[in-house]
Design goal:
Blueprint: E1 16-25, E2 28-38, E3 43-47, H1 54-61, E4 69-74, H2 79-87, E5 90-93, H3 105-115, H4 120-133, H5 149-160, E6 167-171, H6 179-194, E7 198-202, H7 206-212, E8 215-220, E9 223-228, H8 230-237, E10 241-246, H9 260-263, E11 269-273, E12 276-281, H10 284-293, E13 300-305, H11 308-316
Parallel strand pairs: 3-7, 3-8, 5-6, 6-7
Antiparallel strand pairs: 1-2, 1-4, 8-9, 10-12, 10-13, 11-12
Helix pairs in contact: 3-4, 8-11
Length: about 325
């Protein structure tokens, strides 16, 4: 995970360049004037709760949804006039698998390659390469409907690579997968980045964003509310560690709120949750020791490093957005 500064003045040959980008639907402004640069060869992430504007932004970048206003350039081209040329050079892995379940694994890739005008021999060679890359060679003749969720996801990624794209857009690439399948997908995406493919992804998994992205933006209500590498964002918006304290509740209504004043000066910030207190601090163990010195006895404690999830929830809130 690199620590690249979000310095737009130094971006040369950007794969994506957006300035004041806006998208409206029937009077509702889903994207409200954002600036984004994606550098060649990096992995870039869009994070945000539901309704933040991530998908609307990705559809504009994929040159399938027109820009309402602002400037957008993809691979140096204007999607308003160069849409077909852009789509020929990018790959798109949608959130939902849209595979043809009646066809075999191999034929799903073969038919897709033919859509790009590739010759039969070229497609066959490319399909063999991709099946090997996503570790599905032994399933080449199997029908898609019999594949596991992880296999279908890897096949969808393989399909998005048929045209050897310079830029790969991934919308929630591991949603619904078990931990083992997620890590296989992560490893494949890391290999793509090593090969020079620029990755742009949305994800709800904070550990995925920390693992895969060099830089990211956090979006909320159509705006970019933070930008930087995962490490930068943690440094800027959280503390080094978090101490979690759980206390027994003596009577109804006597929640953790009653204890905030007794620990508030021990941390840079205290967050009250229904079942615990979060103390954001530079040294969690030292903070815990001071809690005990004050005669407080939590029934359970945990000290952990601050994460991107702490940043995300601080910037966008804990309220569920439907």
């Amino acid at each position: 995970m690199s620590d690249l500064p979000p310095d737009r003045t130094a971006v040369a040959d950007p794969m994506i360049e957006a300035r004041g980008l806006r998208k409206s639907f029937d009077g509702f402004e889903a994207v409200r004037g954002i600036d984004v640069d994606v550098r060649r060869g990096e992995a870039f992430g869009f994070l945000g709760p539901n309704g933040a504007g991530k998908s609307s932004t990705m559809r504009m970048v994929a040159a399938v949804s027109p820009v309402t206003s602002g400037r957008l350039r993809i691979l140096g081209l204007d999607p308003a006039v160069d849409g077909p040329a852009i789509r020929a050079r990018i790959g798109v892995c949608p959130q939902e698998d849209t595979l043809d379940t009646e066809l075999s694994v191999r034929d799903n890739l073969y038919v897709y390659g033919r859509y790009f005008g590739m010759g039969r021999r070229e497609v066959r060679e490319r399909v063999a390469e991709l099946l090997d890359f996503v570790q599905l060679s032994d399933k080449a003749d199997a029908r898609v409907e019999g594949l596991s969720g992880g296999m279908k996801r890897r096949l969808t990624i393989a399909r998005s690579l048929v045209n050897s794209p310079e830029l790969l857009l991934l919308d929630e690439p591991t949603t619904g997968l078990d931990p083992q399948a997620r890590h296989v997908v992560w490893e494949r995406l890391f290999r793509l980045k090593q090969q020079g493919v620029t990755l742009v992804l949305t994800t709800h998994y904070m550990d995925e964003a920390e693992q895969l992205t060099d830089r990211l933006v956090v979006m909320d209500k159509g705006l970019v509310v933070a930008e930087g590498s995962p490490l930068q964002l943690i440094r800027e918006h959280s503390t080094r560690e978090v101490a979690e304290l759980r206390f027994g509740v003596a009577e109804p209504g006597a929640g953790h709120e009653r204890l905030v004043e007794r620990v508030a000066d021990l941390a840079e910030r205290v967050e009250v949750l229904p079942d615990r207190l979060l103390l954001y601090t530079g040294d969690g163990e030292e903070t815990l020791a001071k809690v005990h010195e004050r005669g407080l006895e939590p029934v359970a404690t945990l000290v952990r490093r601050a994460s991107l999830e702490d940043v995300f929830l601080r910037l966008t809130g804990r309220t569920l957005v439907e």
